[in-house]
Write a structure and sequence with these properties.
There is one protein chain. This protein is α+β, with helices and mostly antiparallel strands and 348 residues long. 51% of the residues lie in helices and 15% in strands. The protein has two domains: 87 residues, Roll (PH-domain like); 227 residues, no CATH class. The strands form two sheets. The protein has a six-stranded antiparallel β-sheet with strand order 4-3-2-1-6-5. A four-stranded mixed β-sheet has the order 7-8-10-9, with helices on both faces. Helix 2 crosses helix 3, helix 2 packs antiparallel against helix 9 and helix 12 runs antiparallel to helix 13. The longest helix is centred in the N-terminal third of the chain and has 21 residues. The chain is elongated and about 85 Å long.
Length: 348
Amino acid sequence: MLDSKSIELTYFDGHNAKSHLVHAYFKESMLHIEGDGINRVVAIAEVDWPERQRHGQRQASLPNAGLLTHHDSVAWDAWVATARGESLVVSWQQSWSKTLLAMFLVVGFVAAGWQWGIPLLARGVVHFVPAEIEQQIGRESLKQIQDIGLLPSQLPLVQQQKISQDFNAAIAVAYPSQQVPHTLHFLRSGKWPIGPNAFALPGGDVVLTDELVELLHDSPETVTAILAHEYGHVIHKHSLQLAAEGTLSSALVGLMLGDVSSWVASVPIMLQQMAYSRDLEREADEESIKVMHANRISTEVMVLFFERIKKQSQRHNAEDETLSISFSSHPADAERIARFRAAAKSNR
Ligand SMILES: [Zn+2]
């Protein structure tokens, strides 16, 4: 009996070089192979399935000899997916033993999360996320954030270049041996009133709004200091850490099984909802202070920002719907102001 999920494949019995054209289909937990004089039924779990990432021809080894091949990887993957049912369980693309191991690891990680705290765990996890995935997340997040309602900057190009140059020069002085990859993006509020703001996304994308530049038009050093704070978040992979905290279990499943697409898609939403802890803010502030000290910029310039943003929010009396990880929504409390004031004194 063939059902609609059957596929035509090439079969080798493992004893003879002759190939056979067969129909294969899944039924319950079994793989049925039927063709000219061939009728094999094997447990799906005993088949050595190829990894989905590989392009080109697919082939699967059967227990006790035998091979199934197909030249069209797309058709093969679609067929295998019918057995898989749910996209989250990517297990069929890999061997069952690996999946089992991954599941044990996930259980272990979750248990460890309860034991030692998810933030600590997420902090560790970020170091295992490959750079290209982190960049992919950053690009996706930036795209989604722009779609929500940020527009291209209206600052003159020469002013944008000046800000970039000042910032890059400042971090080159503070971190002479190496700097982490980062990209500045100049945007402004559109439908989304983000106001004077800056934020860092996974992969080193740092967004700066025109409104922030305008608010600090007479103090470019403050802009540099704020960017240095965001650069601190980049150095410590804070936004990725936050995303990992928010989606820990799916993140781990995704990372271990090699299917990160669903996780990548969930990160921008995560980043709009979660805020940095005081500890992460302090860590980013410390990098900013380091940059200011190295460049002989008074850390009081940061206090100027806090004062102006406070005045502005009183004047507008509006609660801007803003990104939780962005600079203006960071707690501009007495503790932070005191930190920058103290840093100013210590460097005199
Ligand atoms: Zn921050």
